Amino acid sequence: MSAQAMGATVRLTEDKRIMIRNTAEAITGVHLSTQGLQRRIHVHKQGLEKRFPSLPDNLIEHSWAGITCISGNSANIFTRVSENCLAAGCYNGGGIGLATHFGEQLAYLAIGENTPEIEQINQRPQPNWLPPNPFYSGELKCV
Fold first, then answer.
1. How much of the chain is helix, strand and coil, in % rounded to 5?
2. Cis peptide before 134 (omega within 30 of 0)
3. CB neighbours of residue 60 within 10 Å
4. CA triplet 20, 23, 51: central angle to 5 degrees?
5. Cα gap 25→1, rounded to integer Å
6. What digits encode the pLDDT tens for the residues 48-86?
7. Sign of CA dihedral 24, 75, 80, 107
8. 3-state secondary structure of 82
């Protein structure tokens, strides 16, 4: 399942490699086992084989897994948690441009400046509530 409704992201890197992102899932940890990565590599290869059956089996040279924060309604976090703690995140795969913009605006907020951009960010919908385990992770844990 892709993080974006339109499916996978495919990019040509500066060194002429193809970078593909085509899966997203709700997980509870920040560490991925070797078996978990191998399972994801298999899913990635299956996706390529379905779309491009004539490509060679050894097409994928390197695979990695990363973490991104995705809300159920594609909304971002931009808030004052407490007097001296500000937070931004949940970029929903929006990339470094959105993160840089939010970071800049948090800096203005931290020094007490209110910018038109902060007003615009604050008018956006808030992330919806996600239920706790076992519901959001898909992992049912019995005690």
1. 30, 15, 60
2. yes
3. 13
4. 60
5. 7
6. 888 888 988 887 777 777 777 778 788 888 998 888 899
7. positive
8. strand
Nearest to 133 by CA among 122, 141, 125: 141
Residue 36 token pair: 């978990």
> For residue 100, what is the DSSP state?
H
Indicate the pTM of the whole model.
Answer: 0.57
DSSP letter for each residue of 5-46: TT--EEEE-TTS-EEEE------S-S---HHHHHHHHHHHHH
CB atoms within 10 A of CB 43: 12
Joined together, the tokens standing for residue 48 give: 């390529």
Measured CA distances, 101 to 1, 12, 59, 95, 111 (Å):
28, 24, 36, 10, 16
CA 58 to chain centroid = 27
